[in-house]
């Protein structure tokens, strides 16, 4: 099994890169796991308390569960991936059965911050976009898909997203094997990744 980690700031275009890689590979050979599924269970907190959580800090992620799930997949066992609700700021209690594939892509803003998970990645990718571009994408997504309003998104960006990005996410670039700028459709970088994947799959 080939495990690929794809990190980068919020709104950097990680999903686009993931899709570009997936589109070039047989569908039965690739699985994707989102770090977002592994936000810690916050059922013991009220909704008001959950809203105040800093979801852009590594402590918000249940890395222990993610590590154990990756180990199970490497052994050839299926896992029960948690389902997370951005509206409720909590896990839903439901899970998705995820079976091991030849290529497993793990994507999320904080996945390169965790040393044990970093060691499990065969390829580490960092997706880069400038901060203005990321803010615009975040605004569009959170308002359209996650039930946020403009003031809420801007406030969270200023108080949490930006400082957390600078403190935790941007420094993980140094661990990346490949840095992909997403200010345009980046066919060369994705071709390189695909070539590496195909070589590894043949071994």
Textual characterization of the structure:
The protein is α/β, with parallel strands linked by helices and 203 residues long. It has helices at 14-23, 47-51, 63-74, 115-120, 131-145, 150-169, 187-202; strands spanning 2-8, 30-34, 79-85, 90-98, 103-107, 123-128, 178-181. It has a single domain (2-186), classed as Rossmann fold, CATH 3.40.50.300. 41% of the residues lie in helices and 21% in strands. The protein has a 5-stranded parallel beta sheet, with helices on one face. Helix 5 packs across helix 6. The protein is globular and about 50 Å long. The termini are close together.
Question: Summarize this, please?
Answer:
This protein is an alpha/beta fold. 41% of the residues lie in helices and 21% in strands. It has one domain (2-186): P-loop containing nucleotide triphosphate hydrolases (Rossmann fold, 3-Layer(aba) Sandwich).
Give the key terms.
5-stranded parallel β-sheet; 203 residues; alpha/beta; two-stranded antiparallel ribbon; Rossmann fold
Write the layout of secondary structure elements.
Blueprint (H helix, E strand, L loop, with lengths): L1 E7 L5 H10 L6 E5 L12 H5 L11 H12 L4 E7 L4 E9 L4 E5 L7 H6 L2 E6 L2 H15 L4 H20 L8 E4 L5 H16 L1
- Helix tally? 7
Low-pLDDT segments, ≥5 res: none
Radius of gyration: 17 Å
Beta-strand content: 15-25%
| Number of spatially distinct domains | 1
CATH superfamily: P-loop containing nucleotide triphosphate hydrolases
Spatial strand sequence of the major β-sheet: 2-5-1-6-7
